[in-house]
Write a structure and sequence with these properties.
Radius of gyration: 25 Å
CATH topology of the largest domain: Rossmann fold
Number of helices: 10
Order of helices and strands: HHHEEEEEHEEHEHEEHEHEEEHEEHEEE
CATH architecture of the largest domain: 3-Layer(aba) Sandwich
Structural class: alpha/beta
CATH superfamily of the largest domain: Nucleotide-binding domain of ferredoxin-NADP reductase (FNR) module
Shape: globular
Number of domains: 3
Number of strands: 19
Strand order of the largest sheet: 4-3-6-1-2-5
Helix content: 10-25%
CATH class of the largest domain: Alpha Beta
Length: 399
């Protein structure tokens, strides 16, 4: 005879030893709503956060730090926790076009906790940029900001990384290292960090005074070496020129360090050559994502016949199917944003897979250094829209 439902549970309970029956009877009732693990997961990964600008700091003539605080009136009562080195993807509407952009968090994780918690992002004005001029000109204290939860993998992991970090930064690429240094001095990150920081001149160095203070607080854990590319070096102890293998070898413990690199794409290409002399295993070399590749048609493998051409994309997104024009030199993601289709995206570098898209027909060129797809996706025709460029008319389904 089959026993079902409550009768089966009752028979099972009656067969338990008396001591287990007692513990079950004395245990607290199951709380209503989601279980504790799901509640924790939702706090750590809310998906969307409603924030507001609390204050703005003018770091240099072209760089601002925005302090973002929760916006409880729109449903965000506390900030999602993060790991030093992660980023936020901001969703912004500019001139009627909805776009997203990732920005590293420059504040420390411990500063995001509690009712007075905050994030800080440090944004450099790009002369020909689409979003940064808008932010610098229009955002002020009180501006509401829609953000993702913290994303990315550019953080120190004790199970994987050495306790010594050698951080190589260029320009505004210093921001994740600023977060790491604050967290190390606070005692929440068990690591030591050497930061080799390249700048064009003294007036472009970010967080100079605070890094000096952090070094003074924890001289055995924090060291910053400035490398200036200007003709005259006004700061005592600075290196001149670019960050080379010789400079790295001079300061870093090569064999006992994990290397983290963050800066413009040009610096990544240069550092690939310099670091190759150390024969580092891949697990000891980490690069922050740097956004969509620029000058993609300059790659040797880019199809010459597609250069400067405009193609058609037939796109299905949600319940909508439409056709939009697409320039071969721009990513599919940018073309969808220009058409105001509001495609999903976060890292814009081919890493996270948030913009994963099915390529039904046609051909695309995938950025050689931005192809973060899984092997199965490559086999079955999926692409990342932020790292793929149309080289024929194509049909896609945004998943």
């Amino acid at each position: 005879m089959k026993v079902k439902g409550h009768l089966k549970d009752l028979l099972a309970f009656s067969s338990l030893p008396s001591n287990r029956k007692k513990r079950i009877a004395e245990s607290p009732a199951t709380p209503s709503g989601p279980d504790p693990m799901n509640r924790l997961a939702r706090r750590l990964h809310p998906g969307t956060q409603h924030l507001v600008i609390g204050s703005i700091i003018e770091e240099t003539k072209t760089v601002k730090t925005l302090r973002l605080i929760p916006d409880p009136q729109n449903g965000t009562g506390e900030l999602a926790y993060f790991r030093a080195g992660q980023y936020l993807s901001l969703s912004v509407e500019v001139d009627g076009v909805a776009i997203t952009r990732p920005y590293s968090i420059s504040s420390a994780p411990f500063e995001s906790l509690g009712k007075d918690g905050f994030y800080e992002i440090t944004i450099k004005h790009k002369e020909n940029g689409f979003l940064t001029p808008y932010i610098h000109d229009h955002w002020q204290p009180g501006t509401q900001v829609l953000s993702s939860d913290p994303c990315g993998f550019f953080y120190h992991e004790a199970l994987r990384d050495k306790k010594k970090i050698t951080g190589i930064a260029g320009g505004s690429g210093i921001t994740p290292f600023h977060s790491m240094a604050r967290e190390i001095v606070h005692g929440s990150l068990e690591a030591r960090i050497l930061i080799i920081y390249g700048s064009t001149g003294e007036d472009t160095i970010l967080f100079s005074k605070e890094f000096q203070e952090l070094e003074e607080k924890a001289p055995d854990k924090i060291k910053v070496v400035h490398v200036l590319s200007c003709e005259e070096v006004p700061i005592k102890g600075c290196e001149q020129g670019f960050i080379t293998a010789d400079i790295i070898r001079k300061y870093a413990d090569i064999n006992n360090s994990s290397f983290f690199i963050c800066g413009p794409r040009e610096m990544y290409d240069f550092m690939d050559k310099e670091l190759s002399t150390f024969n580092l295993p891949p697990k000891r070399l980490r690069r922050e994502v740097y956004g969509e590749a620029t000058g993609i048609t300059g790659y040797r493998t880019f199809p010459r016949e597609a250069m400067n051409k405009t193609f058609q994309i037939q796109v299905s997104i949600g319940n909508t199917t439409t056709k939009v024009p697409a320039n071969a030199g721009e990513t599919i993601l940018v073309s969808l944003e220009r058409a105001n289709l509001k495609p999903p995206s976060r890292c814009r570098s081919g890493e996270c897979g948030f913009c994963r898209t099915r390529l039904v027909s046609g051909e695309v060129f995938v950025a050689p250094k931005g192809d973060g797809r899984r092997a199965a996706d490559k086999k079955f025709g999926y692409i990342h829209a932020c790292a793929s460029y149309p080289v024929t008319d194509i049909e896609i389904i945004v998943v």
